[in-house]
Amino acid sequence: MTKQIIPAARRYFEPESISWVADRIRKLLASEEYLSLGRYCEVFEEEVRRYIGVKYCAVCGSGTDALELILRAAGTAGGRVIIPVTENPAAALAVIRSGAFPVFVDSLHDFSPDPGLVERILSREGDVRAVLGFHGGGFISESVEELRRLCNENNVAFLEDAAHAFGSMLRGVKAGAIGLAAAFSLYATKVLTAGEGGLVTTSNQKLEGKVRTLRNYGLENNELTEIGLSSRMAEAQAIIGIAQLRTIENNIRRREEIAKLYEERLETITGVEPIPKPPSLRPNYY
């Protein structure tokens, strides 16, 4: 018997979007334009910025790079960063690569760090530089407000790992506009994909400038000011990302329809409990 496997990376592209992407890439390859960090990357950054509702967006090479960039730009080196145990290993790797030490805490039922445990660590351990909130599965925890308050009171940066959560909203505020800065992944399985790539969103001008310097070796005005990354996005990736972004709400609506079917059937199974979804949350159902 042949097993039918549902592809984990099935993408949502409307036919018009595929034609648009193919046409733009064809023209790009026939031109003399830069093939990375060019005008399409700039358009992508601007459209993401407006969609999320922040002042700045910077593209980069991957979601892991985006995490490292915001951690480094937030000044976590030499300190501690609190992350939930439900995180992808990439989060701990990004913390270590940024020069900080990861401190793991248990999470709530919705993947987010337990605020009570975070408060205990902040009161007992010195030199905590950041708390990393994780929007697992596209679910933004209602506890983010409590986490942000704790961070503000203790002069600690609240950062978002929004890799799963592009388009998710809590009380009308989108993931990526909640903390000091956020990191998104554009990997093949994500709701918004460019095949590969990452995004940083923030409304902090100083942090955004630091991210742009760090993503390109640490170069500022053609002078090497610090040791950075080689984390540029290709123009072809940006073109795919733009096409995806322009149909993102259709994509999420379709995911909501499918999720409802799962919820209706799973609730009949004893012992299976879905993640609670408060009325104020619109997840993207990653």
TrEMBL record:
Organism lineage: Archaea, Nitrososphaerota, Candidatus Caldarchaeales, Candidatus Caldarchaeaceae, Candidatus Caldarchaeum
Record flagged with keyword Transferase: yes
Source organism, top-level taxon: Archaea
A family per Pfam: DegT_DnrJ_EryC1
Organism: Caldiarchaeum subterraneum
InterPro entries assigned: DegT/StrS_aminotransferase (IPR000653), PyrdxlP-dep_Trfase (IPR015424), PyrdxlP-dep_Trfase_major (IPR015421)
Gene Ontology BP terms: polysaccharide biosynthetic process
Protein name according to UniProt: Aminotransferase DegT
Keywords of the record: Aminotransferase, Transferase
Gene Ontology molecular function, alphabetical: pyridoxal phosphate binding; transaminase activity
